[in-house]
Amino acid sequence: MKQGVLKQIVLVSSGDLRLSANQNCWAAQFQMEGNLTTAIEKFGWTVKRAHPYNSTKKHGFIDSQRMGMDVFHDIDPNQPLIVAESVWQYSHHILAGLTTHKGPILTVANWSGQWPGLVGMLNLNGCLTKAGINYSTLWSENFDDDFFTDGLQEWLSTGKISYDQSHVKSFSLSKIPLADEKKGRAFARSLKNRKAIMGVFDEGCMGMYNAIIPDELLHKTGFFKERLSQSALYAAMLQVTEKEAEAVLNWLIKKGMKFNWGTNEQTELTKSQTLEQCKMYIAAVRIADEFSCDTIGIQYQQGLKDLTVASDLVEGLLNNEDRPPVYSIEGKELYAKQALPHFNEVDECAGLDSLVTYKLWKELGMTGENTLHDIRWGENYNVEGLNQFVWLFLISGAAPSAHFIDGYKGASSDRQPAMYFRLGGGTLKGISKPGFIVWSRVYVCDNALHCDLGVGEVVALPIEETNRRWNETTPEWPIMHAVLKGISRDQMMARHKANHIQVVYANYEASAHEACRVKAAAMDELGITVHFCGEVNLIKKRS
Q1: Phi and psi dihedrals of 114, rounded to 5?
Q2: CA 282, 287, 288: angle at the middle one, nearest 5?
Q3: CATH number at residue 146
Q4: Distance between CA 75 and CA 84 in Å, rounded?
Q5: Where is the signal peptide (predicted)?
Q6: What is the pairing mode between strands 529-533 and 448-458?
Q7: Axis crossing angle, helix 92-99 with helix 117-131, rounded to the nearest 10
Q8: Maximum C-alpha span of the chain
Q9: How confident is the model at residue 508 (pLDDT cuts 50, 70, 90)?
Q10: Residues 347, 211: one domain?
Q11: Rounded to an integer, what is the distance from CA 113 to the centroid of its chain?
Q12: Are residues 12 and 67 in the same domain?
């Protein structure tokens, strides 16, 4: 890296759009920036924060796109720059400035589950990847470990960091059994020939530029967007009767699901909030049927968050085959005995993946309920005598009950955190059952669609450890304890191009490897560039 006389690095921090979240999370950000600055100064560099603490707002985050543009206007575009994140952040706040920044860019997060800083950084990394902006990335618990300090020193010296990507194998350079390839390609050709409709209830949730697939790339796969409005969803909710909403709620209660109701609308989940979610569930299915959607995504976090309750319970129900029946106004059952795959936070990359997975798994004779999760955090844990890195996957409620221990009987609904969800509404919360999974992520890179995928195992942890992890993160949300085969923590973080990861169960370990291979062939047939990550059983290709 070209070093100026002062050897100065400029630091920025993108935050939430919601004032309450920025205020609640500022203390953690302030501490993180202090630790990071100390680490940088040990190498003889100084750090200049590009925007001050705002005493009126009581935080120091960039909290709008215009503010981000103004901050970057006063930054030397050739200066080395760090984006420091310990919270969820809206990438579009700073993306405009980063598109014109010419100096080396480093994204950094604290290794903590307290606030979704790792999630925010991964989202930003995915956005930068899609935008074709060069960057490096690092993470650390205390900013004094060898991995972090070695990477920081490399970036300070050269302006970039090299990463171990030995766990990645290109599908085009791999060989899989012919039967698996035929299955995957035949399925994809049939899907592409029929074409699929992706119902998008408003696009671009929470600044997630990486979650929007350009139409010209999407159309090549046989998927097409039906652009819908969340205002139409709310209008449809107003047409649902109290009796219809009560029928959905009673169905869930009979299944054994628990609702942790209180009476304070501001801080507790109330029955009225749950009934409003039941109306949203019915309205969403009716609109999906009206437009013949194969999959839908509700944005919620902009627009609906100021109008009605959270969509998360709705999303979890939609992703499950065994769910409360929904009828048209004329009395016809809609999507009977089927899931209606929902992509949380209107992440279109997840939506494409979700529908392909759901339909393909059914072709393979398995249940195809799947969901995205945030890659929230993780720590080593002794699992059956083996010290393994166990990821904590967490999402605000879109996980289907089929993923949980004891299904609906193991599920509960807690009020969403007030700082994110002012009007409340509950989650679909549970602990994911042990078993083997196929994980994946579709993303945009070099103006083309790519897909990383691999095999993992959901492990059972003692309830004390599960509760500790929940309390270190967001205890209202469904949780998955995952071990990703053949991938270290740092390999995964350096490679992954999104805050979200898609997961689906297989019947047993061998079927997970088989399904992973078949899915890779299907994605390749759809025109997506595919990469195996970690341990996937393949046929070794002769040189």
Answers
A1: -55, -60
A2: 95
A3: 3.40.50.10940
A4: 16
A5: none
A6: parallel
A7: 40
A8: 75
A9: very high
A10: yes
A11: 15
A12: yes
User: What is the per-residue pLDDT across 47-100, written as a single tens digit (0 to 9) for each?
Assistant: 999 999 999 999 999 999 999 999 999 999 999 999 999 999 999 999 999 999
Q: Is residue 252 part of a domain?
A: yes
Reading the block at residue 504, the tokens are 């689906």
**3-state SS, residue 54:** strand
Rounded Cα distance between 513 and 528, Å, is 19
- Over residues 265-291, mean pLDDT: 98
Type of residue found at 53: Y
Residue 319 reports pLDDT greater than 90: yes
Q: Is there a single domain that holds both residue 148 and residue 235?
A: no
Map residue 100 onto helix, strand or coil: coil
Among the listed residues 158, 111, 113, 168, the one whose alpha carbon sits nearest the alpha carbon of residue 136: 158
Q: At what angle do helices 509-525 and 178-194 cross, to 10 degrees?
A: 50
Q: Is a pLDDT exceeding 90 seen at residue 351?
A: yes
Within a domain: 50:
yes
E-assigned strand segments in 44-147: 46-49, 81-85, 105-110, 136-140
The single-letter code of the amino acid at 2 is: K
In-domain check, residue 218: yes
Name the amino acid, one letter, at 236.
A
Cβ atoms within 10 Å of 467's Cβ, excluding its own: 14
Q: What are the structure tokens assigned to 135, written together?
A: 């960057």
> Any bridge partners for residue 454, and if so which?
439
Note the pLDDT of residue 397.
Answer: 80
Give the integer Cα–Cα distance in Å for 416 and 300.
13
CA–CA gap between residue 386 and residue 407 (Å, rounded):
28
Residue 303: per-residue pLDDT: 86
Three-state secondary-structure class, residue 161: coil
Instruction: Map tokens 């903590």 to a residue.
Output: 112
- Cα–Cα distance, 426 to 414 (Å, whole number): 5
Q: Above 90 in pLDDT, residue 459?
A: yes
Give the pair of three-digit tokens for residue 501: 């990861």
Does residue 543 have a pLDDT over 60? Answer: no
Residue 10 pLDDT > 50: yes
Do residues 451 and 532 lie in contact, with contact meaning Cβ atoms separated by under 8 Å?
no
Report the run of H or E that residue 518 belongs to, with start and end.
helix 509-525
Domains identified in the chain, total number: 2
Is residue 302's pLDDT more than 90? Answer: no
* 201 vs 192: CA distance, rounded Å: 23
Q: Do residues 494 and 528 both lie within one domain? A: yes
Residue type, position 192, single letter: K
* Mean model confidence pLDDT for the chain: 96
**Gap between the Cα atoms of 286 and 163, Å rounded:** 47
The answer on 488 and 386 residing in a single domain is yes
> Within 10 Å of residue 74's Cβ, how many Cβ atoms?
9
Nearest to 309 by CA among 421, 206, 417: 421
- For the chain, first and last CA: distance in Å? 39
